[in-house]
Amino acid sequence: MITHDSEARLWLLSTPGTSYTFRLDADDVPRHVHWGRPLTLEQAVVIAADLPTEDPGSDDPGGEEYVVEGGLRFGAPSLTVRFDDGVRGFEWRFVSHTVEDDRLTLSFTDRVRSLGLDLHYRLREGHDQIERWAVLTADEPVDVLRLDSAAWTLPARDDYRVSHVVGEWGREFQLQRDRVPVGETVFTSRLGITGQHAGPWLMLDAQDAAEEHGEVWSAALAWSGSRRITLRRDPYGRASWTGGFGHEGLVWKLGAGERLETPVFTGLYAPDGFGGTSRRWHAYVERQVLPARPAERPLIFNSWEATEFDITEKQQTELAELAAGLGVEVFVVDDAWFGARTSDMAGLGDWWPNPDRFPKATAHCSSAPRPCPLWARYWSGRSRASVSAQEGGGVLRQHVGD
């Protein structure tokens, strides 16, 4: 549910178990108020009125809902733009807000330049996650140096710990937990594709959470390309992060009338530890992210471990017949069915059947006790290619000069 107090210029987003609230200050800057346990609108207004307008050091107002470049701001910006005349920065001017079902949109423009910014929030029925993204609209040419999906602010605590996942081939999704230092910590990927080295996800707690107790804040970026998430902890105990697609050095050029929309950055607060956080994410992904599928998942047989690279059409057909007799519903030919894929060092990127191994290109099972969906699933790793691959299109190659 989304509620609004026009006098306090405050919005309250209420999920089944949490509240998220922010307001506009006198300069139209959106400022974070609360992300945590449930509040009434009246309680949110009282909390907002008691918040300081400046940091103890008076060097940064802090707590911005979406950080722009310019003014007394010294953290990593969520938005960085450069106009044709070299002017940078964005000065907030509030235009309007709209609520459609469980979606809130706040519209702003720059006070001087012809640039619009919409901040979007969406709730999902039955879930505590909050989905956020941003849309930038230009009515004059502008270079976009940074356009994050969202920034998230946490309350002041004596200490913070960050959980994230790292890995390598064969050791993906290794959980790592580190103390958050004062300053900035950057989680980034410049690969341009999904990789096992790091995931676009992080989780923070005040060094006091366990599996079933303690407050935990987390967020996941719905993006498989290059990305950057900048985590900041200030000397006064607050933690915040901003994140989105792309990394340093990239520029998106918008002409008059063009727009740029970010991927969704979804955040979650859980009061019941890492276990509660995990269960909420599992439920959200199951019901809101994954595509529709039958209630029962099919029984799958993957022939890779039986044959590895040494495969033939006859051999795979025989395996499929055996699998069908065991009740298998989907037969997967994992690797080595394409091009010159006879080892780890060749053929990756040649996405057509090997004519020597599969002269018919497709096969069937003649004596299976039930229809055998041989070749119903092929493994295809289009994220990479071997040097010897014949397919040249769409492959990034390093150019070495003379």
UniProtKB/TrEMBL annotation:
GO terms for biological process: carbohydrate catabolic process. SUPFAM superfamilies: (Trans)glycosidases. It catalyses: Hydrolysis of terminal, non-reducing alpha-D-galactose residues in alpha-D-galactosides, including galactose oligosaccharides, galactomannans and galactolipids. Pfam families: Glyco_hydro_36N, Melibiase. Its EC number is 3.2.1.22. GO terms for molecular function: alpha-galactosidase activity. Residues 30-254 form the Glycosyl hydrolase family 36 N-terminal domain. It is an enzyme of class 3 (hydrolase). This is alpha-galactosidase. It comes from Streptomyces albiflavescens. The lineage of its organism: Bacteria, Bacillati, Actinomycetota, Actinomycetes, Kitasatosporales.
